[in-house]
Amino acid sequence: MSDAANSSKSAGLPDAAPPAASADGSTPKAADSLEVIRKFAETYAKRTGTYFCSDPGVTAVVLEGLARNKDELGGALCPCRHYEDKEAEVAQAFWNCPCVPMRERKECHCMLFLTEDNPFRGESQTISLDDVKSLVAG
Ligand code: SF4
To answer: Which pTM does this prediction carry?
Structure first.
């Protein structure tokens, strides 16, 4: 059997489940979402031949923002933009990561995925969960 049939589907994040409990947002899902987002970003960087930023703090903050949006909105809405209506944006999907500009032209204005010729790119396509957590906290 081939994985080809699944390739387009697996290009992005798995569909987000609706937020589990909801009210205060303090569910244990937060850590899970961060790990899901982190793994997605590593896989996607490798698949697209892009690299994380030379400043890992940038990578960590973007990953944390994506995970938070996934938890709060049910979709990994790009955290680097302002939205009048976040729920509507998630439904529209244009800015759900990987957003359309990234998928079509490898343009990531968050500097999460940087092309090889970008002067701000680092050498890495991986980042550990511990590093993300400590960089966001620090
Ligand atoms: S700009 Fe696009 S690819 Fe980059 S983090 Fe935002 S949604 Fe993801």
So the answer is: 0.83
